[in-house]
Write a structure and sequence with these properties.
12 strands, single chain, 140 residues, 7-stranded antiparallel sheet, mainly beta, 2 helices, 3-stranded antiparallel sheet
């Protein structure tokens, strides 16, 4: 399911970390979603328990992927992709391998679209359209 969705430019609409083998982990992200006085701050981000991916898609649906960036990793092992969805509050990040096949996609309903990435060693610091930052250490 997840691999097929990615290939046609779509993603699930439930917060989660999705893998091409159709497994998923809950994501807990406090994002801006609306004007916040703390814009430009780190985005709280936690990974939770496994969940049923098929059920999540049935209950929450899917959305189009709107890519804002695709950037090679510093070590040449793959790519980082980021952007949003059809609604302005949705953001996604994806880790692609060297031939741009999906390794994972993280969908965050309240993060806002991610518009850029910079690297600090093998950590990725992504920024959303509010200027808030999310650090992924290390990028696996």
């Amino acid at each position: 399911m997840i691999q097929e969705l990615w290939q046609v430019g779509e993603m699930p609409l439930r917060d989660g970390l999705y893998r091409p083998d159709d497994t998923g982990l809950e994501l807990h992200v406090e994002g801006p979603g609306a004007y916040r006085p703390d814009a430009g701050q780190p985005i709280p981000f936690r990974i939770g328990e496994p969940f049923d991916v098929a059920q999540a898609i049935d209950e929450h649906g899917i959305d189009q992927v709107d890519t804002c960036f695709e950037s090679p990793l510093p070590d040449g092992s793959g790519w980082m992709s980021g952007g949003g969805g059809g609604m302005g509050n949705i953001g996604y990040l994806a880790r692609l391998d060297a031939n741009r096949s999906l390794r994972w996609i993280a969908v965050m309903f309240h993060s806002n679209p991610f518009v850029s990435v910079r690297y600090e060693g093998m950590s990725a610091v992504v920024t959303n359209d509010w200027g808030n930052r999310l650090t992924l250490e290390p990028i696996l």
